[in-house]
Amino acid sequence: xxxxxxxxxxxxxxxxxxxxxxxxxxxxxxxxxxxxxxxxxxxxxxxxxxxxxxxxxxxxxxxxxxxxxxxxxxxxxxxxxxxxxxxxxxxxxxxxxxxxxxxxxxxxxxxxxxxxxxxxxxxxxxxxxxxxxxxxxxxxxxxxxxxxxxxxxxxxxxxxxxxxxxxxxxxxxxxxx
Length: 177
What we know:
Elements: H1 5-20, H2 37-58, H3 66-79, H4 94-106, H5 111-118, H6 122-137, H7 144-156, H8 161-171
Helix pairs in contact: 2-3, 2-4, 2-5, 2-6, 6-7, 6-8
């Protein structure tokens, strides 16, 4: 689970690069450690959106089970760890950032806003969809409501049906077999 966090962090850097310079394809570019206030706010927005996505995925079947909540808590802790953090050391108080994440979990952004944010970078849309698949699969059950949630999310992310099916088959389909 924790090895997904660096991919998320790289994607937020890519998003920043594209927003700051749309002509740059952000592969391999690094963002300076001297982040502007805009970049820091965008990173906070990113955290709000990914945690909101996790909450929507947890609640896709209408029930928040302990396995899903545990997965999200581990992801939030890892996202703010010194090694994996998308924030430079000292830029923000880690406790305040964790509180921000808890707020996003308890009052998530609308799924439409999450999808709109993720679509800014195609790789982020894919990774957000993969994250949703991981969360719905974390309780080892795949319910009809969760399948409908993933279909809705894929549509909102403007994801190709073939790609959606491949991701679901890789991340979720094994549960009911």
